[in-house]
Write a structure and sequence with these properties.
This protein is of the alpha/beta class. The radius of gyration is 28 Å and the shape is globular. The longest helix has 19 residues. The chain is 40% helix and 15% strand. The strands form 5 sheets. It has a 5-stranded mixed beta sheet with strand order 2-10-9-8-7, sandwiched between helices. The chain has a 4-stranded antiparallel beta sheet with strand order 11-12-15-14. The protein contains 19 helices and 15 strands. It has 3 domains: 65 residues; 113 residues, Aspartate Aminotransferase, domain 1; 249 residues, Type I PLP-dependent aspartate aminotransferase-like (Major domain) (Aspartate Aminotransferase, domain 2), CATH 3.40.640.
Length: 455
């Protein structure tokens, strides 16, 4: 404990009279700086450490506190986990065209719900409906705030207080404890489980259909795969049954894609166009996963069914804003030029990135990272496997490359997270793995490595 009296601490006014305080006031405002100085002085009194209370030291601590408190909570990070479409990191990174469209829509008034030709109120779906129909072959389309909301709106509109048969093998649970049965209950329909976990037949659906049935639902497997002695009903067969029984047939594709991923050397993932061609009346899918757009739930299909959804009061609660529509419209327009998609849509570019290109980057970065970490750590270039993420092709892996750090415990992982742009990897078999498939800014990553020695 100090022998100096607490009265030796400077007053707030004395601290604020320093020339350096004017810089802080210009940045944060006088009220915020005054509050920060008072807070530092209160801490010194409570700790009985007046010897640390020189006016310049108090102001320096106040400046550090202000910088920390004014830093946004939502910050860019380097996603080096190997999961390309990572829910915890905001899923798809947007194309520059989408970012520019969002900025333009944010800066000025836009014709969100205004028809420029008639001068009357318009419909916000008009900004993306035509291109969605063109890309999928649908009659109509609408957009809500995510795919769970899309399915909620569909079920609430078409099957409220009615039964919806679903295969037991498709009763999914995804991240954040989202479960399909619970969403169905919230929508007001009643789940009718058919078949078994591993085998469901057309006859199971046919036997479940009755006067209380509202629609048939097929859900694309998300985050899991059932293998071995299995059977599932083809969409075309379910569509035929629905036509015979005069029921809507709904397909939930989950992550969704508008193109055949095989053109990028990836396994096939069903598209909305394929499901509609197989006879689906309504298809739902996400905008911020394989499509590469903003968070959105997209509903495409029959015009008469979409018209009913637009009249549902729930739709207003689930609708998207002008920024989402601007970004989604910009990304969808990129799909009109499929030959350049891998260049312009970040998700597809990262998925199609050759392993050799990634390994070459790892070779360039290895000595820089090893130098920054010091002699206690070793860094080696390794082969690794990336995954798409967010439920798409859950059992498929993509050959990648990265950096393996040993020992790779929590201390180094925490130091990497404290960098100006936090670096997030994964720990595997005692090593910290930095999968470089998603590293777009190699220079920015390398430039901040020297700060590791101070963390």
């Amino acid at each position: 404990m100090s022998n100096r009296p607490l009265s030796a601490l400077p007053s707030v006014d004395r601290v604020l009279q320093q020339d350096a305080s004017m810089v802080l006031v210009a940045q944060h405002g006088r009220a915020a700086v005054t509050t920060a100085v008072r807070g530092v002085l209160a801490e010194l009194r409570a700790a009985k450490t007046p010897e640390l209370g020189a006016a310049d030291a108090v102001l320096a601590r106040a400046a550090e506190n202000l910088a920390r408190s004014s830093r946004p909570s939502l910050r860019p990070v380097f996603n080096l986990t190997g999961t390309v479409v990572h829910t915890n990191f905001g899923r798809a990174q947007l194309a520059e065209e989408a970012i520019e469209a969002m900025a333009a829509a944010a800066r000025d008034p836009v014709n969100l719900e205004y028809d420029l030709e008639t001068g009357k109120r318009g419909e916000r779906d008009a900004h993306v409906e035509e291109i969605l129909c063109r890309l999928t072959g649908a009659e109509a389309a609408t957009v809500v705030n995510n795919n769970a909301a899309a399915l909620l709106l569909v079920l609430s509109t078409l099957a409220a207080r009615r039964e919806v048969p679903v295969s037991r093998g498709e009763l999914i649970e995804i991240g954040g404890s989202f479960r399909l049965p619970e969403l169905m209950a919230r929508s007001g329909c009643r789940l009718r489980e058919v078949g078994t976990t591993n085998r469901t037949h057309l006859s199971d659906f046919a036997d479940a259909v009755g006067p209380k049935t509202g629609l048939l639902l097929k859900v694309h497997a998300s985050n899991y795969a059932i293998e071995g002695f299995t059977a599932a009903v083809a969409e075309a067969d379910l569509a035929r049954l629905c036509r015979e029984r005069k029921l809507p047939f709904v397909v939930d594709l989950g992550s969704g894609t508008l193109i055949d991923l095989r053109r990028f050397g990836l396994p096939h993932e069903p598209t909305a166009e394929e499901s509609l061609a197989q006879g689906a009346d309504i298809v739902t899918f996400s905008g911020d996963k394989l499509l590469g757009g903003p968070q959105a739930g997209i509903i495409v299909g029959r015009a008469d069914l979409l018209a009913r959804m637009r009249r549902n009061p729930l739709r207003r609660a689930l609708r998207v804003d002008k920024l989402t529509l601007a970004a989604l419209g910009a990304v969808l327009r990129l799909y009109l030029d499929p030959d350049r998609l891998a260049e312009r849509v970040p998700v597809l570019r990262m998925l199609a990135r050759p392993q050799g290109e990634i390994r070459a980057m790892a070779e360039r970065l290895r000595p820089l990272l090893e130098k920054a970490l010091g002699p206690e750590s070793t860094v080696e270039v390794i082969g690794c496997e990336s995954q798409i993420g967010s439920g798409a092709l859950p059992t498929q892996r993509i050959a990648s490359a990265g950096l393996g750090i040993r020992p790779g415990g929590d201390r180094i992982a925490a130091a990497l997270r404290r960098l100006p742009v936090p670096v997030i990897g994964r720990i595997h078999q005692g090593a910290l793995i930095l999968d470089l498939r998603c590293l777009r800014d190699e220079a920015g990553f390398a430039a901040q490595l020297s700060q590791l020695t101070r963390l």
